[in-house]
Amino acid sequence: MSRSVRYSSSPLLASKTPVWRSKFIVAAIALGFAGLAARAAHIQIFGNEFFQRQGEVRFVRTLELPASRGRILDRNGLILASSIPAESIWAIPEDVVATKAQLVELGRLLEMPVETLEKRLADEDKTFVWLKRQVDESVAKQIAELNIKGVYQRKEYKRQYPDGEATAHVVGFANVENQGQEGMELTFNKELNGRAGSRRVIKDRLGRVVEDVREQVPPVEGKDLQLSIDSKVQFFAYQKLRDTVISFKAKAGSVVVLDAVTGEVLALANYPSYVPDKRKNLSGEQLRNRALTDTFEPGSTMKPITVAMALEAGRVTPQSIIETAPGRFNIGGFTISDTHNYGTLTVEGVIQKSSNVGALKIAQKMTPNEMWDTFTALGYGQKPQIQFPGAVTGRVRPWKTWRPVEQATMAYGYGLSASLFQMAHSYTAFAHDGRIIPLTMLKSTEPAVGVRVFSPENAHAVRRMLQMAAAPGGTGQLAQTVGYSVGGKSGTAHKQVGKGYASNKYRSWFTGMAPIETPRIIVAVMIDEPSNGQYFGGVVAAPVFSETVQQTLRMMGLPPDVAVKPQIVTSPVEESF
Amino acid sequence: MTRVNLLLLVSVLLTALFLVHTQYESRRIFVELEKATSQGRKLDIDNETLQAEKRSQATPLRVDKLAKDKLQMVPASAAITQYVSYAPAAAALTAKP
């Protein structure tokens, strides 16, 4: 007999299920759901903040929005300094895997000996080393093509100065961190730099920005700075100055060109100079902005000021007679002398011939107090109010301590010191009808409002004397230009060495203005230690003045104010049959 | 009752899908915007670079050198300049001695 299983009547199924079992299952599931609900509530309500934060840590990033550094422009909007992107090369030393050939090539591109490069990469403790900052774009590309593991690039901004050495002292330069170090870059560093902004974003797995989390803080872009400098005038003045310094074998030189109406500085150049882009091996000699930071005894260029104050005080008139014979004068045990015996001169003649004895006799008609007041009003011994780092004050001692001989020497520019810039500034009083005007390095179109120091008549009288000094019979004949009337005063000062004056070291000056009736520009020139035999201001510095005036006025579009003999040669055309 | 529930379920599912789609779309567009912005920035930088380059090609030093060496030019002076002025300026000039 065979037995078969009857599945339909499994005894297991046949047994009765107790009711508590189904209830238990339902309760267990309900508990499970309750647990999930509680967890959900915990995540979404009670612990929300914590989880939100954790999420942010993983996906939200703060990006800095860099502000670009503003440009520096000249008065016509030409770029004097701007930022361009440049790659900086950096490396993680322990990650670097490179063959010897690759390293040699990298060293060549970075202009760095392979040994130095290897030394830098040998320091395994460091996780970051700069190899070279701000390399040229083409070099960066070549380095990228080398494809060395562990060597990376980072985009930075590099300052570029197209005008190079001609504007170096005015514009200055910024370092690799884009912080101004010299010149206008330093003075207006804050304005030029702007302020970086920021934004919070969500980044996805691939590092792409997919969402802004909250409103971004936009960067405040650096402001462009428009200077009063005219790059053409600046270039021309610099070029002329450089040629002169070289041809007279001088140590250095400076030139300042001012707009006599608005008080703007049109050009300010020094030689020796430097190329702001290439700052390796810079010397202090090159960096010094001599026109502002070096003070000297101005010598004869002071005489017009002495005369002007005597005119203003009513002690002399332009036609007053001054006896300068015999060309020597003893005062307090010192002898002050002229190069020639000029005999009897008018006040005008004293300026024209540049007589020391004449100047001191005029000064003797004044009190030290009066002289000191005028010097101070003209900015001597005062810090120039100019937006420029490092401008010096010069020196004018308090009048109470002056001895008679000092008062006498000050009349012709010894015993006090000033920078070329101060010198040029004081001459604005003559050019601006007796008012000394504030100077600015920034572009301004408004005529400057000045402080009255001399009356318009006296300023005019001095201008006439300056014109005579720069005319035939004067000391500054080489200052003459074609087409424009000029006036100016030359100066030649012995250089102070230690406690006394060196007999063979000179400084040559020329300060003047043009056109003389209604001056538009003031040009001051200083040449330091010309040493090829010529050293008089009228010979060394006046030609720089002349050429600078000529070119500047022509570029300003001023028609000539004196008759010009045309030199336009029209060759006769030969007619042919 | 069941029908209403089904309807609600379907609409919930639909809106949920639509939300996902919108989110996706918005991110996609955002990424594109990002790309465009960065390209704009790049163009700005290029512009700046080219401007600087143009300027460095036209510095007074270079122009002066080229004009003198290649074109044999000389600086103009008042002596070789013919000044012409329009009526009011001319009147002012003749008024002066």
Shape of chain B: rod-shaped
Straight-line N-to-C gap of chain A: 151 Å
Number of structurally distinct domains of chain A: 2
How many DSSP H or I helices of chain A?
Answer: 21
Mean pLDDT of chain B: 84
Radius of gyration of chain A: 39 Å
Helix content of chain B: over 70%
Beta percentage of chain A is: 15-25%
How would you sum up the major sheet of chain A?
A: 5 strands, mixed
Task: Report the major sheet of chain B.
Answer: none
- Global geometry of chain A: elongated
Low-confidence stretches of chain B: none
What does this structure look like?
The complex is a heterodimer of chains A (577) and B (97). With 577 residues, chain A is of the alpha+beta class. Chain A folds into two domains: 60-83 and 164-227, Penicillin-binding protein 2a (Domain 2) (Alpha-Beta Complex); 231-555, 3-Layer(aba) Sandwich (Beta-lactamase), CATH 3.40.710.10. Chain A has 21 helices and 19 strands. In chain A, strands 2, 3, 4, 5 and 8 form a five-stranded mixed sheet that branches. Chain A has a five-stranded antiparallel sheet with strand order 10-9-19-18-17, sandwiched between helices. Chain A has a three-stranded antiparallel sheet with strand order 1-6-7. In chain A, strand 17 and strand 18 form a beta hairpin. In chain A, helix 10 runs antiparallel to helix 21 (542-555), helix 13 runs antiparallel to helix 19 and helix 14 crosses helix 19. The longest helix of chain A has 28 residues, at 19-46. Chain B is an all-alpha fold and 97 residues long. Chain B has one domain. In chain B, 77% of the residues lie in helices and 0% in strands. The longest helix of chain B has 56 residues, at 2-57. Classes of the chains: A alpha+beta (577), B mainly alpha (97). Chain A binds chain B through residues 68, 78-79, 82-85, 160, 162-164, 166, 204, 208-212, 231-232, 235-236, 239, 481-484, 550-551, 554, 559-561, 564-568, and chain B through 26-27, 30-31, 34, 45, 48-49, 51-52, 55-56, 59-61, 64, 75-83, 85, 89, 93, 96.
